[in-house]
Design goal:
The chain is mainly alpha-helical and about 180 residues long. About 70% of the residues lie in helices and about 0% in strands. The chain is elongated. The termini are far apart.
Length: about 180
């Protein structure tokens, strides 16, 4: 009887741990996407976000801005709810990989200098959740939804690589630096 109680307690602890991780990461990323989509929480909304994407030289800016904002908002909500796993994790990972490549990587690791530290932490969290599944306290468990594993994760990862590559390859070339006037 003691072993059975211990096993149930462990299973409940794991499910609760996955729920906490999904809620914190998923809602944080969804809120970040809501800044872009709706201008909530001090965000710029789609007009400002599209301008930011254009400054990153991603072309055409408007559709890619929508893809990024919806990846964060929708992916965050899917993750938080534990619904259609691992799709939310893959959407978030794609958005974070593009953010690292276009904004954060040149600034180094530390977030205090605009680096990729936080984005990498999010990628690690969503990768772990994609591999473990959403846990017992999720919509997938409640509705008995199980995307075929490992096929869903493999196909999703391939789609993620293609999507991130397409985004980065859509960038226009960096303009040449303005020539300095010659002094005589």
């Amino acid at each position: 009887m003691c072993k059975a109680f211990r096993d149930v307690a462990i299973a409940m602890s794991i499910a609760l741990g996955l729920l906490i991780l999904r809620l914190v990461v998923g809602l944080t990323v969804a809120a970040h996407g809501a800044q872009k989509l709706f201008g909530w929480f001090g965000g710029s909304g789609m007009t400002g976000w599209t301008q930011s994407v254009a400054k990153l030289r991603i072309r055409p800016a408007q559709p890619w801005a929508w893809v990024a904002a919806l990846s964060e908002f929708g992916g965050g909500l899917l993750l938080a709810l534990g619904f259609l796993s691992p799709l939310g994790s893959l959407a978030i990972a794609g958005a974070m990989l593009v953010a690292i490549a276009t904004v954060h990587f040149p600034r180094g690791f530390w977030v205090t200098k605009g680096g990729y530290e936080f984005n990498l932490s999010l990628i690690g969290a969503v990768a772990a959740l994609a591999l473990t599944g959403p846990g017992a306290y999720s919509l997938d468990a409640a509705l008995r939804i199980h995307l075929p594993e490992p096929v869903a994760l493999i196909v999703g990862t391939i789609a993620l690589i293609i999507g991130v590559s397409a985004t980065l390859l859509s960038r226009s070339p960096q303009p040449d630096a303005a020539p300095k006037p010659q002094t005589t």
